[in-house]
Specification:
With about 230 residues, the protein is an alpha/beta fold. The protein has a single domain, classed as 3-Layer(aba) Sandwich (Rossmann fold), CATH 3.40.50. The protein has 7 helices and 6 strands, in the order βαβαβαβαβαβαα. Helix 1 links the parallel strand 1 and strand 2. The radius of gyration is 18 Å and the shape is globular. The N and C termini lie far apart (about 45 Å). The relative contact order is 0.17.
């Protein structure tokens, strides 16, 4: 019987959070038998060329609304409270300081993001601070992502080890999954154009965007008449 707690970590700008993020979290939670998934909105994402469009407070609120009915999902403000760029290496070290061992942490990211990991701060040392769970994404296969990062070849873990967490060292797990083809950029564009986003985000997230006029939203976006209330406002 396994007694060591295993957590997934899903970081991101979440501007806004959407079903693609939730699909990735659930795929990794199920495949790697995680006890919980920790969502960590970034304060200042170093790989984003443009600034975020929603404030840190709204992005945190949107993430909270997205996972409010998902048992085993938690939200952390550790990056929002830290000044400067939100580097993964700093977040993983902060989790170590909270008592988590590297082999208890499964840092989750899409294949598209993993393909660029060689440009991250402290690569490849960052791979020693946690397991990395790479989820297939529309437009980027797992094989294509791995081919972009030949340095991780020896770290790849076979599917048979998924439930055990390896041999005491960190590794890279590839998680085939069906994640919906949605991006935050598409959502913002739809909102600005007055189009529905009901198929891209949870209903509570869509309501918050409309009520607070995020991304240029207007009250009629989802059939609202402008007099609705946000229970989390």
């Amino acid at each position: 019987m396994r007694t060591v707690r295993r957590i997934g970590v899903l970081g991101g700008t979440f501007d806004p959070i959407h079903f693609g993020h939730l699909d990735a979290a659930e795929a990794v939670r199920a495949a790697l038998e995680l006890d919980e998934v920790l969502f960590i909105p970034s304060h200042d994402p170093p790989h984003k060329t443009n600034s975020t469009e929603a404030s840190v407070h709204h992005r945190f609120a949107l993430a909270a609304l997205a996972i409010q009915d998902c048992p085993g999902y938690r939200l952390s403000d550790m990056e929002l409270l830290r000044q400067g760029a939100s580097y993964t290496v700093d977040t993983l070290r902060a989790l170590h300081a909270c008592g988590f061992a590297a082999t208890q942490i499964f840092f989750t990211l899409g294949a598209d993001a993993f393909a660029e990991i060689a440009s991250w701060r402290a690569f490849p040392q960052v791979l020693d601070l946690a397991h990395f769970a790479v989820v297939s994404r529309p437009g980027t296969t797992l094989d294509a992502a791995v081919a972009r990062v030949p340095e991780i070849g020896a770290r790849l873990r076979p599917e048979a080890e998924r439930g055990r967490g390896g041999n005491g060292t960190t590794g890279v797990y590839l998680v085939p999954a069906h994640t919906r083809d949605v991006s935050s950029t598409t959502i913002r564009a739809r909102v600005a154009a007055g189009q529905s986003i009901d198929d891209l985000v949870p209903a509570a997230v869509a309501r918050h965007i409309v009520v607070h006029h995020l991304y240029g939203a207007v009250d009629h976006l989802h059939g609202e008449e402008g007099n609705g209330s946000d229970p989390h406002n």
